[in-house]
Write a structure and sequence with these properties.
InterPro entries: LRR_dom_sf. Helix content is 22%, strand content 22%. It is α/β, with parallel strands linked by helices and 324 residues long. It has a domain at 71-250: Alpha-Beta Horseshoe (Leucine-rich repeat, LRR (right-handed beta-alpha superhelix)). Strands 1-2-3-4-5-6-7-8-9-10-11-12 form a twelve-stranded mixed sheet. β7 (182-187), α7 and β8 (210-214) form a beta-alpha-beta unit. 32% of the residues are buried. Residues 161-168, 284-289 and 291-295 have low confidence and may be disordered.
């Protein structure tokens, strides 16, 4: 830390994290309260525990990024449930003109994503994980970030978990996402999102070529997916549909896998469904000793069994891998 002042005008990348190094963020910000001091800063990894540092110190540091020309930003914020103003800070970060790659992982339920409609963003690569984000909030991302090429988002309804998004989904004109090439969507296991709702958005992604879905039971019909991909995503070259035995009963596995065993799926070399069985892990991915984990719940737990379809060998209708 003592050597930093001598090189402060040359530093292009900073990694400040409390993973394995408690109190590092506080120690750093005590000496350098503003990132504006780092004139050449382009990349920042900022992973903090909200219980280990006064929020005004963090808020000041994040707000100071508006005075930099940063292009890559990763924020992982733990224990921030009561930091309502964090949502406003995050929304403002979307407006940084130099920012191209942004990853935000936390567990908060107070972000008003509709505020993005007031912002024009240059972000091209975006990851949002663990935060209250409804399916209908995708429209705000598409309007705010017209240059988006990569989007990875967890669709998590924390505030109103029992509301049916299929009924709440507003009938609005969706914005064309003309540059989006890669999309990764995580759905809660009890999600009410339907294939028809997905189709509306896919029709606005004309150049999408990579798609990964972490799906609930409503999205596991191979025949319906075939029709959707052929009509809405003709340029798709890579497709992965993932689910777990927490979401589909093992007695139904054969039926699900069989629907992906047609000649269409076999001919698509990079189109697959993967069903995994996991060892249960009794933690939610947060805490100072767990900062290396994100919040994808069962998909991150240790895999003990795996089924893949279609099987492209001659003799089996499915492939099973045990004791992965």
């Amino acid at each position: 830390m003592g050597l930093l002042p001598a090189y402060i005008d040359k530093i292009e990348e900073l990694s400040i994290s409390e993973q394995d190094t408690p109190d590092q963020v506080y120690a750093f910000l005590s000496v350098f309260p503003s990132f504006e001091l780092f004139k050449q800063l382009r990349t920042l990894y900022f992973h903090f525990n909200g219980e280990a540092i006064d929020w005004p110190i963090v808020e000041r540091a994040l707000n100071s990024l508006s005075q930099t020309t940063i292009d890559t930003l990763s924020i992982k914020a733990m224990n921030t449930d009561n930091r309502s103003s964090l949502g406003n800070v995050i929304i403002n970060l979307f407006g940084l003109k130099s920012l191209k790659r942004f990853s935000f992982r936390s567990k908060i339920d107070s972000i008003n994503w509709s505020d993005l409609t007031k912002i024009s963003s240059n972000i091209e690569h975006l990851t949002i994980s663990g935060i209250h984000f409804r399916f209908q909030d995708l429209q705000y991302i598409s309007k705010c970030a017209p240059h988006l090429k990569y989007l990875d988002v967890d669709l998590i309804n924390i505030m109103y978990p029992y509301h049916d998004e299929a009924e709440m989904n507003p009938k609005k004109s969706l914005i064309l996402m003309s540059t989006l090439r890669t999309l990764v969507l995580y759905f809660q296991r009890d999600s009410s999102i339907t294939m028809n709702m997905l189709t509306e958005y896919f029709n606005c992604m004309p150049v999408l070529n990579r798609l990964e879905i972490k799906a609930h039971t409503e999205l596991l019909d191979g025949n319906v997916w075939k029709m959707l991909l052929e009509t809405s995503l003709p340029l798709l070259t890579h497709f992965t549909l993932r689910t777990t035995t927490f979401r589909v009963e093992e007695v139904d596995l054969h039926h699900v896998l069989a629907s992906f065993q047609s000649s269409y799926w076999i001919s698509k070399k990079n189109f697959n469904i993967i069903i995994t069985k996991h060892e249960y892990s009794d933690f939610n991915g947060f805490g100072i000793d767990k900062m290396k984990y994100n919040v994808r719940y069962e998909f991150d737990w240790p895999v003990i069994q795996c089924w893949i379809a279609p099987d492209r060998t001659e003799n089996e209708s499915k492939r099973q891998i045990s004791n992965v």
